[in-house]
Amino acid sequence: MSGRRSHAPSSGAIAAALLLALLIHLPLAWWFLDRTFWNRTVPPEPDPMRVTLLRVAPPVPEPEPEVAEPQPPEPQGQIVDIAPPEVQEKPEEADHLAEYDATVEEETVDPRYRLDRLVTAPTYSPDDAYQEEDAEDLNQELPSTGATAGREMFKTGRYSLFPDRQSLFDRSNKEGIDLPVPASHSDSRRAGAPSNDYLPDISSADKTALNAHEFLFAAYINRVSQYVSFFADQTLANARPMIAVRRPKYTVVLNIMIGDDGVLRAADVLESCGVPAFDAAVQEAFALAAPFPEPPVAGLNESGAFNIPAFGITIMMGSARAEMSGIDPRSNVQFPGLETYGR
Q1: Residues 233, 125, 211, CA angle at the centre, nearest 5°?
Q2: Euclidean distance between CA atoms 136 and 116, whole angstroms
Q3: pTM value > 0.90
Q4: For residue range 199-245, what is the model confidence (pLDDT) as tens digits?
Q5: Most buried residue among 13, 103, 208, 286 by CB atoms closer than 10 A?
Q6: How many CB atoms within 10 Å of residue 111?
Q7: 3 state SS of 133
């Protein structure tokens, strides 16, 4: 019977194993000691804390943006010249602007008018003589006259023919300076009539009645219109178109600039009527009508001018006629006017 042999590790193998373990763990032990026990630093004593008080200006609040108060919309509509209503009442809706608020049940227009009216009336009436108690007797022996046939009133122009020629009616003062002779009340006249505003969409009747909103500058613009209408009626009568005129009406629109002294600065054609002679005649009417009254200060723009951006004049083609006399709306005196020819 054979017995088992036990193989115990030899002392050399054990020594080799211990040496290998030391080689592996010794670097780890060195690293651990170097990071812990051998590298301890004494924490420095804490420095006293220093506190500095800074003076900071309080924040300035940003100003709130200014919110503009809502402004009422600019009035829109055609500017018309109407008689003062008995009761001024603002209409709910209106297509017209005037010097007054006016409300009517039915809009109508009286097509009969006078360019030389002294009083804008709702209906047309013949000239009415002033009553004795309405006017002062100036004890004038000479007849009521105007300036010498255009010498003081007019400038020579293409369509203002013979501006210095003596009128056949000879109603001027030939003696002394050529100034109008004051009229006695017996020769004075009150011309009441509707205006000549172009209102094609309003029914014709024997009375002009329109719904209108009050407009600040209507009175001044109507005054300018009255001056220009008087002279345009004559310059247009003298115009000689070089092209055929076939339409019943022609409209020219101008941009008007009037200085703060009433001097005409510009009368530029924005929309031609298609007949150059009519455009030029209307521009000349503005030149003849100027200077105008001083415009309201509230209506002046930055350049110190009163601007009417769209002044429209409608020319109705009708029967031949010649206006040989009229009332100058600036001085309210009768004078012969420009010589004109039928058209």
Answers
A1: 80
A2: 23
A3: no
A4: 999 999 999 999 999 999 999 999 999 899 888 888 888 888 888 88
A5: 208
A6: 13
A7: helix
- Residue 172 pLDDT: 41
8 backbone dihedrals φ, ψ, rounded to 5°:
-85, 140
Give the tokens for residue 340: 């004109």
Supply 176's token pair: 């002394």
Reading the block at residue 83, the tokens are 């008689």
C-alpha R_g of the chain: 49
Say how far apart CA 117 and CA 102 lie, in whole Å: 21
Residues 172 and 335: their CA atoms lie apart, in Å, by 8
| Distance, CA of 181 to CA of 142 (rounded, Å) | 7
pLDDT at 69: 75
How far is CA 204 from each of CA 81, 192, 208, rounded to the nearest angstrom?
16, 18, 8
- Among residues 188, 192, 191, 189, which one has the least CA distance to residue 83? 192
Rounded CA separation 60/226 (Å): 59
Range with the largest mean pLDDT of 8-22, 184-198, 238-252: 238-252
Contact (CB, 8 A) for 260 and 295: yes
Write down the domain spans for the chain. 78-131+189-215, 217-343
CATH topology assigned to domain 217-343: 3.30.1150
Helix spans in the chain (H) = 11-35, 218-238, 276-289
Residues 6+ apart with CB under 8 A from 141: none
DSSP string over 74-123:
PP-SEE---PPPSS----SS-SEEESS-B--SS-EE-----TT-SEE-SS
Q: For residue 240, what pLDDT is reported?
A: 86
Lateral strand order in the sheet of 78-79: 78-79, 96-98, 212-214
Task: Return the structure tokens found at 190.
Answer: 């009150």
